[in-house]
Amino acid sequence: MNSTTESSSSSSSSSSSESSSDKSSSSSSSCSSGCQFLYEIGEKLDKYVITKYLSSGTFGMVLEVIDELGIPYAVKILSQTDHTEVEVLKQIQQFDPFGEAGIVRFYDYFAWQDYHCILLERLGLNLHEYLQQNSLNITELQSIFQQITTSLLFMHSLGITHTDLKPENIVFSHQQKHLVKLIDMGGATQANEHHSTVINTRQYRAPEVILRCDAWDTSSDIWSLACLIVELYTGSVFIKVGNNDLMHLAIIQSIFGPIPRWMKERSKIKTKLNSLPYPKPQLQLGQLIKDHDLLDLLTKMFCIDHNQRIDCHQILLHNFFQKKFI
């Protein structure tokens, strides 16, 4: 398992690399959503003091702040919000008041000038940042895999789909370095809410989402998780594709076999499915994953028919998590 990984899109995390440059004078940060927040290090943000710039993304930006006791937090600053993220975080807090589910802790929500601010737990490096300088051994991968799946099991039990699993959204805890947490509930969707047509960062998007053949559900997170685990194992993005649905589907078929007929028949793009492009030869899963039990588990997670895909509870019962590696 090597230590390199392909670069991904800007993280929307509540954390950032410890090497993020401090902006010690008058500063501003803009993002592709058009939000631009002007600030100075040391100035007040409601009852908190800004201490560090952390990250920016399509969502807005994240700053480090401290309270009157010097306790650090991450504040996510948005130019607009539909309050869904806050409601999801509140629901998670309600059912996990002690923060034991491995999901970033929510502390406060407030308006500041024309911006919406979500106060979150201050965390450490995300997995994408970590893999730039480090590799994971199989024991570490097993632990991270188990932790993420346990967190997802909790979310799925509440009827919530994360919708954006990727290395940038898995973050190490500051206090306990071996623990990871899920972050970024900006796209999280509850079962009874409107389901957007497009979810996930492209490389982690499940086939049913691309095909638009059925209402996606929590099983789409399982596909994303499988892509993530292969990436952690190999150090490289698994399904490498540009912004092209037909090529994406062609690559999926070349690795996992034909798309079931019923999915094609229900697809909103079914008229295009008879003329899929020819992708270059793809490495098969068995060529990449050398551990037999991990390969078996990932194969079950990569089931194209999402109705047959393994769920979080079944994942955690798999033999891969019963093994002890030396």
TrEMBL record:
GO BP annotation list: regulation of RNA splicing
Region (Disordered): 1-33
Any one annotated GO CC term: nucleus
Protein keywords: ATP-binding, Kinase, Nucleotide-binding, Serine/threonine-protein kinase, Transferase
UniProt-listed Gene3D superfamilies: Phosphorylase Kinase, domain 1 (3.30.200.20), Transferase(Phosphotransferase) domain 1 (1.10.510.10)
An annotated Gene Ontology molecular function: protein serine/threonine kinase activity
Superkingdom of the source species: Eukaryota
Keyword Nucleotide-binding: yes
Location of the Protein kinase domain: 48-321
Compositional bias (Low complexity): 7-33
PROSITE patterns: PROTEIN_KINASE_DOM, PROTEIN_KINASE_ST
Pfam families in the cross-refs: Pkinase (PF00069)
The keyword Transferase is annotated on this UniProt entry: yes
Alphabetized SMART domains for the sequence: S_TKc
Protein name as catalogued: Protein kinase domain-containing protein
Annotated organism of origin: Paramecium tetraurelia
